[in-house]
Amino acid sequence: MELLNSVIWYEEQQEGLGKRFRKAFQAKLEQICKAPHLYKKGYKDFHEALTDTFPFLVVYYIDETLQKVIVISVFHTSRNPKKKFRKT
After folding, report:
1. More confident residue, 47 or 78
2. What is the tens place of the pLDDT at every residue in 56-73?
3. What letters, b where the CB count within 10 A reaches 16 and e where it falls short, cover 33-46?
């Protein structure tokens, strides 16, 4: 939900900015999928990857058994970092 709201918010600030944000986010997801161990581990086994240009973290873990990356949070860096791992 935060991702969609952020796309809308950026688009309201400047036409085309929401699209640029969405593309930057998609590019980061592609990088994570290609090299999931590249990004540092934070709390427990969760990895955190900062998007380029925009102040958002992608928080994820790697399920080695299923060989999948599971995104658990898209998090604006200005928010309380303790909320990165909580369900809203």
Report:
1. 47
2. 999 999 999 999 999 998
3. eeebeebeeeeeeb
Please enumerate in sequence order all residues whose Cβ is within 8 A of that of 1, keeping only pairs 6 or more positions apart, or say none. Answer: 88
Place of tokens 């860096």: 77
Nearest residue to 73 via CA among 32, 12, 17, 37: 32
> Do 52 and 30 meet the contact criterion of CB atoms below 8 Å apart?
no
Six-digit token string for 46: 């969760």
Average pLDDT over residues 72-76: 87
Query: Is 3.30.2310.20 the CATH number for 2-85?
Result: yes
Q: Both tokens of residue 30?
A: 């592609």
Phi, psi for 86 (deg, rounded to 5): -100, 145
Question: Which of the pair, 86 or 6, is modelled with greater confidence?
Answer: 6
Q: Are strands 68-76 and 56-63 parallel, antiparallel or unpaired?
A: antiparallel
